[in-house]
Amino acid sequence: MSELIEEFEVFASTTLDDISARLEVLVAIEQLPNGLVSDVLIILDELISNLFKYGGGKRLEVKLYKSADVLEVRCKDDGAPFNPLMTQRPDLEVPMEDRAIGGLGLELVLAMTDSQNYHYDGNCNHLTLTLSLS
Questions:
Q1: Pairing between strand 3-10 and 60-66?
Q2: Which helix (H) or strand (E) segment is 131 a member of?
Q3: Which residues of the chain have pLDDT under 50?
Q4: pLDDT of residue 34
Q5: Is 29 helix (H, G, I), strand (E, B) or coil?
Q6: pLDDT for res 87
Q7: What pLDDT does 102 receive?
Q8: pLDDT at residue number 99
Q9: 8 Å CB contact between 100 and 70
Q10: What is the CATH classification number for the domain harbouring 55?
Q11: CA neighbor of 116 nearest in space, from 80, 70, 81, 77
C-alpha cells in the first residue's frame, strides 16, 4: 500500500530550487532516497516546461506516494488534453542534424520511469509515473 509523502502545487513562478528544497526535506526525514532527487527534478522540470510552454496550463499538482519498493509521482494539470504516452517517439538512430526538434524530454521521462499511466477526466490531465526504490 502506498503512503502519501508529499504534495504541492507548481505555478509558473515556482522554481526548481523550490521543488528541490521540498525533496531534500524528504531525504532528511528518510522518506526519499537521495539518489532519486535528481531524477524526480528532471522529470518534473520536463513536465512543468511542457505544461507552461505548450499546454496552456497554469497549475500542476504533484503528489508523491511511496511503498516499500516504488515511488509514485502523480501529476494533475489544467492544461489542454495531452497524452504524453501517445506522442510519436523520436528516432534515436537518425543523426542529430537530421532529427526533428523536440520530443527528447518526454523520451527521457519515459526512459527514467518504470511505468506510466495517463488519463484525462474532462477537466484535467492525470499522469502517474513510477520509479523503483531498489
A1: antiparallel
A2: strand 125-132
A3: none
A4: 92
A5: coil
A6: 77
A7: 59
A8: 61
A9: no
A10: 3.30.565.10
A11: 70
Report CA-CA distances (Å) from 42 to 3, 20, 48.
23, 11, 10
d(CA 26, CA 47): 21
- Say how many domains are in the chain: 1
Instruction: Give residues with Cβ within 8 angstroms of 19, minimum separation 6.
Output: 8, 10, 41, 44
* For the chain, counts of helices (H) and of strands (E): 3, 5
Rounded to whole angstroms, the Cα distance separating 52 from 12 reads 7
Distance between CA atoms of residues 25 and 44, nearest Å: 17
Across the beta sheet with 125-132, what order do the strands follow?
A: 3-10, 60-66, 70-77, 125-132, 115-120
**Separation between Cα atoms, residue 112 and residue 88, nearest integer Å:** 18
Q: Which domain holds residue 109?
A: 3-132
Burial class (CB in 10 A: 0-12, 13-18, 19+), 26: buried
| CA distances (Å), origin 77, targets 56, 81, 105, 116 | 10, 9, 18, 16
